[in-house]
Each structure stands twice: as structure tokens, then as C-alpha cells.
Design brief:
Layout (H helix, E strand, L loop, with lengths): L1 E2 L2 E3 L6 E10 L8 E11 L2 H5 L2 E4 L1 E12 L7 H7 L22 E17 L8 E5 L3 E8 L3 H21 L1
Parallel strand pairs: 5-7, 6-7
Antiparallel strand pairs: 1-3, 2-3, 3-4, 4-6, 7-8, 7-9
């Protein structure tokens, strides 16, 4: 289950945000939440988003807590959640027909900020009451550009974030 405390669409301020997002753990895990997010905001004018060369002035994500743990069978919660996400296949196992894509658009994020991220490992490596916590350093990326879709841009940014999570977890 996913819950959100607040959503703001910034028609006048150009900043839209989501606050209090929580992704619940599936049954069989100790912690109630897999992920919580304090606030995520995107700053851009509508015209900047719809142009062939789209510009997002800022994306800021704050106060994230990610808890990784295994259930009694040894399955990681992130894997169980991933297993339940929709796929590109329908019930018959055939690939869905997707509409042909138009030309690629350039998307630029002038500033991407990820601040106040904590990764919690429960019963994976020991620690106080089985929990080890790692605070990630803040991540600031400037002028991230993609010559593809927003999905390509998100993939590029998530690669940096996942690398940072792994590095902090190993330390």
C-alpha cells in the first residue's frame, strides 16, 4: 500500500510537491514501511516541461528512509515489492502493444538534490537490535541532460543514487 499526506500543484509558484509518502512493507516483515519520503518537489513552468527541449529547474527529494530486510523465507522486501509491480506482459504472456514513440526530446534538470537519506538494514548484518543505519551524504547534480525520454533521465539519476546507497551501506 502507498499513502500520501499531501500533494501541491504549483500553477502559480511553478513548484509542485508530494509530502508524507509511505510505501508499506508486504506482510511478513517487521518494519511497517519499506520507504518513507518527507517531501519531493519539482520546479518548472508548464511551457518548460512541454517544449521539445524540456527544462526542469529543480528536483528536490528530502528526508527519505529506506528499510531493507528479509522475511522468514529469506526474501528481501525490495525483491518482493518488485515482484508485485506490473510488467510489460499481460496475463497471456504476450507482450503488450505499445504505441509508436514520437521523436526523442531533450530533458534537462538544472539541479537535482537528494537530501537527508537514511538506509536501514534490518537483520541483514547485525547491529543494535538487528538494525544498522547509514546516513547517505547529500547528492547534488547540476545540469543533468538526457537526449531521450524522462524515463532515460530518471534511469541516469537513479544510477547515481543507487551507487551512493551501496557505497554508504558497505561503509
Amino acid at each position: 500500500a502507498v499513502s500520501v499526506r499531501g500533494v501541491s500543484i504549483g500553477l502559480i509558484s511553478d513548484t509542485s510537491s508530494v509530502s508524507g509518502l509511505a510505501v508499506a512493507n508486504p506482510q511478513g516483515y517487521t518494519d511497517p514501511d519499506f520507504l518513507t519520503l518527507g517531501r519531493a518537489a519539482l520546479t518548472a513552468r508548464l511551457g518548460e516541461l512541454t517544449a521539445d527541449e524540456a527544462t526542469i529547474r529543480a528536483i528536490t527529494i528530502r528526508d527519505v528512509v529506506l528499510t531493507l530486510e528479509k522475511d522468514a523465507s529469506g526474501k528481501l522486501n525490495a525483491d518482493r515489492i518488485n515482484d508485485n509491480l506490473p510488467t510489460d506482459k499481460d496475463d497471456g504472456g504476450k507482450a503488450r502493444q505499445t504505441p509508436k514513440e514520437g521523436p526523442s526530446h531533450t530533458v534537462t534538470v538544472q539541479e537535482f538534490r537528494l537530501e537527508g537519506v537514511k538506509v536501514r538494514l534490518r537483520d541483514l548484518v547485525g547491529g543494535n537490535k538487528g538494525v544498522v543505519e547509514a546516513n547517505l551524504p547529500d547528492i547534488v547534480l547540476k545540469n543533468v541532460k538526457s537526449d531521450g525520454s524522462v524515463d532515460v533521465l530518471a534511469s541516469q539519476i537513479s544510477g547515481v543514487v543507487i551507487g551512493s546507497v551501496l557505497e554508504a551501506t558497505i561503509q
